[in-house]
Structure formats: C-alpha cells, structure tokens
Amino acid sequence: MNIVMMTNTYLPHVGGVARSVSSFTEEFRRRGHRVLVVAPEFPNAPAKEVDVVRVPAIQNFNGSDFAVVLPLLSDLDDALDAFAPDLIHSHHPYLLGMTALREARARNLPLVFTHHTRYEYYTHYVVDSPVLKRFVIELATRYANLCDLVFAPSESIAELLRERGVVTPVEVVPTGIRIERFAQGDGRAFRRRHGIPDRAFVVGHVSRLAPEKNLGFLAEAVAGFLERHPEAHFLVAGRGPSEPEIRRILERRRVADRYHLIGVLVGQRLADAYHAMDVFAFSSKSETQGLVLVEAMAAGTPVVALDAPGAREVVRDAENGRLVMEEDVARFQAALDWIFERTPEQRARLQEAARRTAERFSLPRTADKALSCYRTLLASKPRSHTRAEQEAWEQVLRRIKAEWDIVREMMEAAGSAITSGEPLLEDMTS
Known about the structure:
Elements: E1 2-6, H1 16-30, E2 34-40, E3 52-55, E4 57-58, E5 68-69, H2 76-83, E6 87-90, H3 96-107, E7 111-114, H4 130-144, E8 149-152, H5 155-163, E9 170-172, H6 179-183, H7 187-193, E10 201-206, H8 215-228, E11 232-237, H9 243-252, E12 259-261, H10 267-275, E13 279-282, H11 291-298, E14 303-306, H12 311-314, E15 321-324, H13 329-340, H14 344-359, H15 363-379, H16 387-420, H17 424-429
C-alpha cells in the first residue's frame, strides 16, 4: 500500500502524536509498504529525509510545544501525484487535517482519522474559553463524520466519540511500542548519574510538563508521600511550562532536595529512567491512551494513575499497579503507600504483571490491526458524504475563528486600558 500520513507534529518533536506517526510509519515501511509523511518544518529536523514533505510552520505557538502550519502548500500536490497514494491518514481535524480532507476528496481516496487528542483540554494555548471548548469538540466530531474510518487509541475514547455523535465506523487501534526497547535498562547507573541513592524508593513521571497533565495535583500527592517516607525520591523526565509550579509545591512542602528534574529523554536514556523507578505516577485526565504508561510497564514498573480514558485500559488495580478512582490527593498518596509497602515477592508479581500488560500493546500487534483496517476499507465501497456535512464542519471552523478574534480583541483592549491607566473595571461593569 501507499499510505499518506498528514500530521501537525512530527519528528524531531517529542510528543504522543509525533511518536505514534513515526512508530507506525517505521513499522509499515519495515513490512514493505510505502509511507509519505506530510508534516511541519521543525528546527533540527533531519537534513535528508526519505518520503517526508515538510511544510512551513510557526513554531512554539502561544508558548506551547506545537507548530501551526502555514497554508503554503504549492509543492504538495506534485508530491502526492508522484507518490500515487492508496489512502490518506489524517492525525488532526484542522490545519493539515483540512488539507488531508481536501486531497482525499479531490483524489477520491479513503480518509482515515486518528482521534489522538482530547482537544478541549488544550484550548488554553489559544484562549481559556468554555465556548471554544465546545467548538473544538464539535469540530472534531464533525470532522470524524467526514472521514471513512476513525481510529480511537482506546476503548474509552471510542465510546466517547460515539456518545458525541460520531457515526463513521470507529476502530480501537492503540499506538504500539517496541517492547524490546524498554525491556532492558540500567536503572542503577541512571540513579548514580543523577545522585539518587541505590536504596531510595523512586516515584517517577515522564511527560510534557504542561497544565493539561494535571501536574499540580501530582506534585501535591507525591510531596505528601515524600514527607512520610524520607528515603523516597521524585524523578521527573520532561520539560514544559508547569516546571515552576511543580518546584514551588515541592519547595513549600520542603522536599525539593529529593526532586530530580532530568529534562527530555529519548532512546536508551529513557529506558534507563523507567528502570530507575519503583513506581510510575500519572495524574493526567486528558489522555486518549497514555503511551508512557505502557512504556513504564514494558520496563517492569508498576503504575499508579487516576482513573481516566487511556489509563483505565492499561492499569489493572492491585494487579499491575493502582487505579485511583477519585481525584483525591489522600487517595493517590495511599495508592503510592500501597506500592511502597509490598514485599519483594509482591513487587515482583506487580512487575511481571506490568510486563504482560505491555505485551498487549506491542507495535507489531497494533500495526497488524491498523493494516487490517486499511485493507478492509480499501476493499469496501467508500461511504458517501454530503456537501451539507462539510459545510457544517467549515461553519464550526469559522465559529472558532470568530470566538478567538473576539477574545483576542478584548485582551488587546484590556491591555491598552491597563497601560493607559483607564478605569477598565468601572467601564466593563457600568
């Protein structure tokens, strides 16, 4: 098959969507399929890439880690003509997702969409508006209904999409990992490099350190755990705008001397970090899968996580970790205590159960599912889509732009009033 992947984020960006696209692309190519990736330009991108089309983009949009693709795609049609795709796989409902829809329609090709992201948890990068949250949910739903097949990374997300009105067929296709890349690691050497005692009990976390990951809650819970256990340390791998918040909480609780912020890790260093942990702590409610949970388990590390989409498909309470059913600091701390109190034999059983769980998410297994879905789609008659459906989706796009323009003008007016000394509050309430 000739498969086109259109994504707003890709290597060398480190994130869930970029890793999903690159993992599937690598596996599909290994099996003899051709894959063309259409993605934004990123600093430090490889100079020579095979079957990758880069398009201009604004980097670090609004202080985030994301790139906003610019509509300068004059060379894309030529690249697609030369590639002769069998289907197009979109990874976003906007920007290059819009391009994917246009190209699929123009070429009469099947369009697959992976709903990687709960977009309503990310609107704060544009403006924190309840109206905008509703719009992005509607946008993703209507976009899904313009596609021929939707991939959901977990059963929870598949159910959510159907509840929101997605009528396009939905298949659960998680992003897989190379189990062997995480199964081996030198946790003891990693600890020595970062000043963590061999006998310390290490609570670990890996993610982009951003508000949607609920890291204030996590820091409070881990700080309480560290207070009760002087031999415990907190190891965090990642980078992002929530770094100062995490440190403030740990400093206030006077446990920051046992906090180790490592930065972004990849490859063997990431595997070593997982092996340096005794438990992986995760409190995000915005995930569609929680790929880091599977990576931690592949390293034999049990997980404590809040019950949420993605996590509940991976964590089996008291079997491979603990699933905390309520967002309550005391309950999360108690779950960490439970792991800490296990005997060596009990911990070994948790670790083995974690490894067995990770096997269900091996990349060869998830790639099998994806390719089977592609073949079934190509063998079937494409679903007809009305112009009214596309117009409804485009209307949501216009409403999102209008909402953003209104709020931006209000923010600019407020800024002007503050700098000029005008009585803004009185004017707004009169």
